[in-house]
Amino acid sequence: MTLASVVIVGAGQAGFQVAASLRQEGYDGRITLIGDEPGLPYQRPPLSKAYLLGKIQETNLLFRPAEFYATQRIELLHNQATAIDRVNRRVVLASGDAISYDHLVLATGAHNRPLPVPGGELPQVFGIKTKADADALAPLAKAARNVVVIGAGFIGLEFAAVAAALGANVHVLELAERPMARAVSREMSELFRQAHEQWGVHFDFRQGLSRIDGDNGKVCAVQTADGRVLPADLVVFGIGVIPNAQLATEADLAIENGIKVDANLLTSDPRISALGDVASFPCLQNDEQHTRLESVQNAIDQARAVASRLMGKPAPYSALPWFWTDQGDLKLQIAGLSHGYDSTVVLGSAKDKQLSVLCFRNDRLVAVESCNRMGDHMAARKILARAPKLTAAEAAADGFDLKAWEAANRD
Amino acid sequence: MPTLTFIEHNGTAHQVKGDIGQSVMQAATFASVPGIPADCGGACSCATCHAYVDEAWLNTVQAPEGMENDMLEYAFERRDNSRLSCQLIISQEMDGMVLHLPSSQF
Ligand SMILES: Cc1cc2nc3c(=O)[nH]c(=O)nc-3n(C[C@H](O)[C@H](O)[C@H](O)COP(=O)(O)OP(=O)(O)OC[C@H]3O[C@@H](n4cnc5c(N)ncnc54)[C@H](O)[C@@H]3O)c2cc1C
Ligand code: FES
């Protein structure tokens, strides 16, 4: 199968990687990468961490320099795709141009769920998604005295750690009863709660906000749902994302919490693939239920799978999910998906900020969360990549060591 | 601008110019040296930027510590001169340094 042209919509982590992997695998046809953000494709993880702290510079965000796109013949178009004409196999752009495709890849990512309260439109209220967001936020974060963070998910907590390190008073409002409640175990939440409190972060759990007050167009306070007034000069929210599926919806592609794809990452139109944050795929590690993951690993591994398939080597997508977040001096790494786990075994000690939580479902290891225990994380990735045989009883035995178990069970 | 040489497992050598303060990983990926996926983009979270520092240059760089050392434990074919290249920051003393790439990063 030779395709004369592949058009990729979305020049983020997944879209860039499809283009790069296609060339790496020897694809010789035309590649058009359409992105609606200015500049060269870049990575997002540092935006809420090292980049905000000024520890890394703009060029360190880039995947590749400008020459790469020229030498690899990847045509980067700064434009927005506004419609897909499936009958004529064309993508229509905001500029009015239309680009023909033999295969279309949708890698449009997701946007931040907006903060649905009065005052949410004030200029000192931020979600963090793009480099433009981080560039606008950085000077305010350095100058801020009172920061209110809405949502104790990964991005909210990464920012809380940054703001505390920059010397602000940080107050986090979270509807759930603990940090990162949807993503990690109770034990891991507790470690992170304590660490943030040591950095000076104040938490309000089971608490929302009713409005943000402004004074002369500037944020001055946040009113909590229970009627308290928190002084604030900066508000950052991270309350989840909404997949950018509009193009696909309007083109009548199947949608199910994002663009619905099959195990080969094909949409309901076999000439269109979707991947990354926008795609909902049958996830092997989640009982093949359609699942949407938001991580660098997911974007990259799915991109490699799409590129291989376009090069005539199809294989159902099965890569093990893994993830990391950096908060202060803590690195949390997660291997596998803990959905529906029913028991845990804990290794290490929360007091020393070195903890691994092994999550079991029906006595089968499904995920390992590690804080500052990289060796455990890497061992877990090896163990979970095959059908794992480790039982909860074995893991709970005195002196159990995950790395030693992995080494002894490498068939 | 220090020059670094990357030698792929198959023997192909790539001379690359790097900026002081840039990571060795980024100097290599920016120059399209193959065999360094660097999936996490330099966050010390993936161990797919593994390289061997040529024996002659071992005195120029420190031994891996802490997080990096733990991650390397699981890198494919770790050796005494293994480093995660995203954690190696280019300095003038590295001008001329040679790094060898492993046969696989996974
Ligand atoms: C602040 C932040 C921190 C993060 N930290 C981590 C982390 O520590 N670890 C981790 O694993 N993951 C992290 N992530 C998640 C990770 O960055 C995403 O999962 C990944 O970027 C998803 O890749 P993607 O290509 O699907 O989407 P994106 O990278 O979001 O790219 C989508 C691109 O498509 C563009 N686009 C959308 N619609 C159109 C259109 N119609 N026409 C043209 N262009 C369009 C968008 O503007 C965007 O540029 C973080 C994300 C953020 C925002
Ligand atoms: S790039 Fe991921 S550990 Fe170096």
Structural class of chain A: alpha/beta
Mean pLDDT of chain A: 96
In oligomeric terms, what are we looking at? Answer: heterodimer
Globally, the shape of chain B reads globular
Major beta-sheet overview of chain B: 5 strands, mixed
Unreliable segments of 5+ consecutive residues of chain A? none
Q: How many strands in all of chain A?
A: 26
Tell me the radius of gyration of chain A: 22 Å
Write down the overall geometry of chain A.
globular
- H/E topology pattern of chain B: EEHEHEE
* Percent in strands of chain A: 25-35%
Query: Which residues of chain B form runs of ≥5 with pLDDT under 50?
Result: none
Distance between the termini of chain A: 37 Å
Q: Output mean pLDDT of chain B.
A: 95
Structural class of chain B: alpha+beta
Percent of residues in helices of chain B comes to 10-25%
Kindly state the number of beta strands of chain B. 5
List strands and helices in order, with pairings.
The complex is a heterodimer of chains A (411) and B (106).
Chain A: E1 5-9, H1 13-24, E2 30-35, H2 66-71, E3 74-78, E4 81-85, E5 90-93, E6 98-100, E7 103-106, E8 110-112, E9 125-126, H3 131-143, E10 146-150, H4 154-165, E11 169-174, H5 186-198, E12 201-205, E13 209-215, E14 218-224, E15 229-231, E16 234-237, E17 241-243, H6 246-250, E18 259-260, E19 272-274, E20 279-283, E21 289-291, H7 296-310, E22 322-327, E23 330-336, E24 343-349, E25 354-361, E26 364-371, H8 374-385, H9 392-396, H10 402-408
Parallel strand pairs in A: 1-2, 1-7, 2-3, 7-19, 9-16, 10-11, 10-16, 11-12, 18-20
Antiparallel strand pairs in A: 4-5, 5-6, 8-17, 13-14, 14-15, 20-21, 22-23, 23-26, 24-25, 25-26
Helix pairs in contact in A: 1-7, 8-10
Chain B: E1 3-7, E2 13-17, H1 24-30, E3 50-53, H2 66-72, E4 82-84, E5 98-100
Parallel strand pairs in B: 1-5
Antiparallel strand pairs in B: 1-2, 3-4, 3-5
Bound molecules: flavin-adenine dinucleotide and FE2/S2 (inorganic) cluster.
